[in-house]
Amino acid sequence: MPTMNIIQAVNDALDLAMAADKDVVILGEDVGKFGGVFRATVGLQEKYGEDRVIDTPLAEAGIIGTAIGMALYGLRPVAEIQFSDFIFPAYDQIVNELAKFRYRSGGEYPCPMVIRTPFGGGIRGGHYHSQSPEATFAHHAGLVCVTPSNPYDAKGLLLAALASPDPVMVFEPKRIYRGPAHGTNWSAHPKGEVPAGHYTVPIGKADIARPLRGKGIPVSLISYGAMVETCREAAAKLEAEGIDVELIDLRTLVPYDLPAIVESVSRTGRAVVANEAPKTCGFAAEVVALIMEHCFDWLQAPPLRVTGYDTPFPYTLEAAYLPDSGRVAAAVRQVARYK
Amino acid sequence: MPTMNIIQAVNDALDLAMAADKDVVILGEDVGKFGGVFRATVGLQEKYGEDRVIDTPLAEAGIIGTAIGMALYGLRPVAEIQFSDFIFPAYDQIVNELAKFRYRSGGEYPCPMVIRTPFGGGIRGGHYHSQSPEATFAHHAGLVCVTPSNPYDAKGLLLAALASPDPVMVFEPKRIYRGPAHGTNWSAHPKGEVPAGHYTVPIGKADIARPLRGKGIPVSLISYGAMVETCREAAAKLEAEGIDVELIDLRTLVPYDLPAIVESVSRTGRAVVANEAPKTCGFAAEVVALIMEHCFDWLQAPPLRVTGYDTPFPYTLEAAYLPDSGRVAAAVRQVARYK
Amino acid sequence: MTRSNAAPTARAPDAGGAATSVSHPPPVAIAPMQVLRADGTIVDPEFIASVPPADIARLYAAMVAQRVYDDRMIKMQRQGRLGFYLACTGEEACAYGPAYALRNDDWMYPAYREPGVALWRGFPLQTWVDNLVGNCDDPVKGRQMPVHWSARAQNVVSISSPVGTQIPQCAGTAYAMRQRGDDAVAICFFGEGTSSEGDFHVGLNFAGVAKAPAIFFCRNNGYAISTPYEKTTAAPHIALRAHGYGIRGQVVDGNDLFAVIKAVGEAAAYARAGHGPTLIEAKTYRLAAHSTSDDPKAYRSREEEAEALIQDPLPRLRRWLEAQGLWDEAREQQTQTEASEAILAALALAEAKPHPPLSTLFDDVFAARTPLLEAQALELAAHLASGESAYRAAGGH
Amino acid sequence: MTRSNAAPTARAPDAGGAATSVSHPPPVAIAPMQVLRADGTIVDPEFIASVPPADIARLYAAMVAQRVYDDRMIKMQRQGRLGFYLACTGEEACAYGPAYALRNDDWMYPAYREPGVALWRGFPLQTWVDNLVGNCDDPVKGRQMPVHWSARAQNVVSISSPVGTQIPQCAGTAYAMRQRGDDAVAICFFGEGTSSEGDFHVGLNFAGVAKAPAIFFCRNNGYAISTPYEKTTAAPHIALRAHGYGIRGQVVDGNDLFAVIKAVGEAAAYARAGHGPTLIEAKTYRLAAHSTSDDPKAYRSREEEAEALIQDPLPRLRRWLEAQGLWDEAREQQTQTEASEAILAALALAEAKPHPPLSTLFDDVFAARTPLLEAQALELAAHLASGESAYRAAGGH
Ligand SMILES: Cc1ncc(C[n+]2csc(CCOP(=O)(O)OP(=O)(O)O)c2C)c(N)n1
Ligand SMILES: Cc1ncc(C[n+]2csc(CCOP(=O)(O)OP(=O)(O)O)c2C)c(N)n1
Ligand SMILES: [Mg+2]
Ligand SMILES: [Mg+2]
Question: From the CA of B314, how far away is ligand 3's center (Å)?
Answer without folding.
Answer: 27
